[in-house]
Amino acid sequence: MGSDMTSSHTLPAAAVTDADDVADLHAAHYAKSAGAGRRITDDDQLHEARHPAPTTDRLTLPPLRLGPLTIDVPVVLAPMAGITNTAFRRLCREYGGGLYVNEMVTARALVERKPESMRIIQHDPDEVPRSVQLYSVDPVTTGAAVRMLVEEGRCDHIDMNFGCPVPKVTRRGGGSALPWKSELFASIVKAAVTEASKKDIPVTVKMRRGIDEDHLTFLDAGRTARDLGVAAVALHGRTTRQFYSGTAVWDDIARLREALPDIPVLGNGDIWSAEDAIAMVERTGVDGVVIGRGCQGRPWLFGDLQAAFEGRQDRFRPTLGMVADTLYRHAELLVDTFGGDELKALRDIRKHVAWYFKGYPVGSEIRTALSTVPDLATMREILARVDRDQPYPGEAAEGPRGRAGAPKRPHLPDGWLDSRELNAEQQAMIQAAELDVSGG
Fold first, then answer.
1. Catalytic residue among 92, 155, 164, 295
2. Which fold does the domain 59-316 belong to in CATH?
3. In the predicted model, what is the mean pLDDT of residues 240-257?
């Protein structure tokens, strides 16, 4: 089946800049390029290093082929817990095309049909293709979860999570810790591909470079996944230990692209703008990009990416009024997502406020009021107080969202790094370790 994911959001003329404006806006963004792209160590994070600037502000990138699927705009929304729900995915889809993946759902919770997990895998009627990301540490549970998704016709694409670095996942041997155990990794991927292939559903994997610089796994894991029949591999250019700190190693993404010439390879890490995406494609040769934190509070980034990959120079540069309107629309969509529960939706929108207003002159009084907003009516009153004519603030509105933090000691099961294979104790731990809480 194909995808015709074109932008359905009409951009106000005042919000779209021409090529000269874009070039000026991003000149400062790449001023700190020295040293970027070289291999980094865990203790020398190069926090100030930037990737080299792209040589152009536009390029033509062909559609992304994932088995029977054609993704016209080769951009993927990375699953983010508590972020990439139906509301946020719809908002992003209104700006640009791509593949929009839901929040991570755990295999055990899905098989047990936990209500929250069943909510997470829901899609809007017009959301095609329907993409689900699955987390598991057990091949049997993986097979059962994929079989359920396939037989009940609940998705068109399945992504396997081998990239999550958070302690509650890695301490159980899951997420970015799992590829270190090569046989376990292979058995989970095989189980997913075997069940999904029965209905020609493509399976992809998303992973990190490894656990740390001494325990890199991305080349071995990539080749294994390819040999087992995955449709594509996505690589975040950081290790588990790096978490979200420092600079993503794009050169390792290029190494994976070179090692897997026969399937699509996607790059992830340090993409905050369309120009960053172009720079990654130029440097690594990837077939598409995966967007995570860069779109938080900036759903229009997908419009910029579509424009860049279609050879256009226009970019979305919203005024403060436009940002306020988008924030409110996001809240409205969350009410629908949570079944009309306005209080739950407004509690959820609070974490997005700082991301939306990053770089804009919005006073503490308004920000504080929005952090406790109880309903849509109150939210309208508060947003009416912003200076709607404030222009796009440029670089101040871009870049990392929130705190990247420092490298973190990976939380792993006892003796996890002693061998690439599971010992008897770890095998028993894995069988009992399937998380039963999804979306986290």
1. 164
2. TIM Barrel (3.20.20)
3. 96
What was the pLDDT predicted at 49?
A: 58
Report in angstroms the alpha-carbon separations of 295 from 92, 138, 227, 259, 421: 9, 32, 33, 29, 37
SS3 content of the chain, % helix, strand, coil (to 5): 40, 10, 45
Q: What's the pLDDT at 435? A: 55
Does residue 27 surpass a pLDDT of 70?
no
3-class state of residue 105 by DSSP: strand
Helices first, then strands: H and E counts in the chain: 17, 13
CA nearest neighbour of 19 among 259, 336, 393, 313: 313
Residue 393: its pLDDT value, please? 95
Give the pTM: 0.87
Tokens of 187: 């058995």
The residue type at 111: V
Q: Report the run of H or E that residue 426 belongs to, with start and end.
A: helix 424-432
Mean pLDDT, residues 283-288 taken together = 98
CB contact burial 268-297 (16+ within 10 A = b; e otherwise): bbbbbbbbbbbbbbbbbebbbbbbbbbbbb
164 is catalytic: yes
